[in-house]
Amino acid sequence: MSADEATVAEGPLALVCGGGSLPLAVADHVLARGRRVLLFPVRGAAKPEDYAGREHTWVHLGQFGTLARVARPLGCTEIVLIGWLTRPSLWGLRPDFLTLKILPRIAKAFLGGDNHLLSNIAKLVEEQGFRLRGAHEVAPEILAPHGSLGRLVPDADDLANVGLGLDYLAAAGRFDIGQAAVVAGRHIVAVEAAEGTDGMLARVATLRATGRIRAPRGVLVKAPKPQQDRRFDLPSIGPTTVAAAAKAGLSGIVVIAGETVVAEPDALREAADRAGLFVFGASGPAA
Amino acid sequence: MSADEATVAEGPLALVCGGGSLPLAVADHVLARGRRVLLFPVRGAAKPEDYAGREHTWVHLGQFGTLARVARPLGCTEIVLIGWLTRPSLWGLRPDFLTLKILPRIAKAFLGGDNHLLSNIAKLVEEQGFRLRGAHEVAPEILAPHGSLGRLVPDADDLANVGLGLDYLAAAGRFDIGQAAVVAGRHIVAVEAAEGTDGMLARVATLRATGRIRAPRGVLVKAPKPQQDRRFDLPSIGPTTVAAAAKAGLSGIVVIAGETVVAEPDALREAADRAGLFVFGASGPAA
To answer: Model-level pTM?
Structure first.
């Protein structure tokens, strides 16, 4: 079977694009494999200038009908959700008719944890005859490789902190909390929940400045939750993560290779080398 | 044996007093039992005006020799550390000769977790012939009782949040992190580490104001870590905790009865009733 036949068999891929540079990076990787991509930037999340040069259809979060109407006649059966989306206010949604029917379920999902919200969205997409794929499945190039993403590597002290952090994330994972923690001096000094990784790192910077954290350096550890639906909710890092980790006085970042999305890997590498931080992809625990 | 004989047998109690009202409350409870109390307010933590009317000896954190010199000739063999102490800078310590000898161990403890720091202090106190007691052992009146500390009680929704929070704290406890979490809409939205309970509650207030937490209400859950040395490191709440929980939009606070210190219980009860929050002492897990 030639690449062209594979493309026909798969049909075009619908990409629902949130903010950041990752959606277009995914689009380019998929296009490079010879598959057609239908772009659906989300209003309020994606930047119009990023999509000016490409064919696209704007959608509001909640307008699943628009996507179905455009994508289905083109033979599209697969959807990827990618890019950072602010959890929208229920009142900020502009639901179309199809979405209205399922709104009660979405509302319920909003009150649950992240995993609950996302798996509900997955279910309703699949009820409409589409298959939800992970960005990393259609564009594995976006995943963190094994080893260092820059010049520096963690030292023995860093690795001891990393071990403690990964143990904690494994133990806390079943509670559907965050995917990250900061460990300094063998002590977990910050745990991520609703504030997100950047919020947590900003807190570490403040706690260090005010003397509440005295251990030198420290490591940001990110890992997917054990039960996490890896199709659309992998941990991610990017150059801003490196900048926030540097401000927090950390010596580096450890993620799980093959289970973490890296946005703008070149810029990230450069930022890490410049700031003197390591960014390291560790092997995940044996499944 | 009469109460007087018991007092003689026990000798006076040395109370190393940090900030807040709890140290003097403990002193009064111990005095009411007929036992003599030697007050050692810590400079920079205790307020001079609080000790003006009572016999006392100021100490700097790290001046263990001063305490030993005053307390030992009076037949004192028991010490209680009580009240909030900012983790001091090593350079802010004014070590006396005795403390200097053990400074390397203290320095090491500073780089470990809280439990590590505190159990090191306990060890060195006991090496000097004193016994470290918990404030709750000499004044059990300071502990949270079973049931509500005010008019309100948690409802079924609150209790479901509480269950999730207690499960999480039990699972995370062995990592020597914080002793508290906030659960809203069956989702753990904040976990305490180095920032402390008030810092965590301030974060929840901000995340709610910015729409990152949408679930209504929610509960603050506090519980001692499983391996925690209960002699000098019990979780504590007070009127300021109630105020911070109210600002965070929570419906109440749940602590473990008999394993949580309540500062200013009357003021706390009044603050909770005024703010419409419950404060509830739940039974701890079976040991």
So the answer is: 0.78
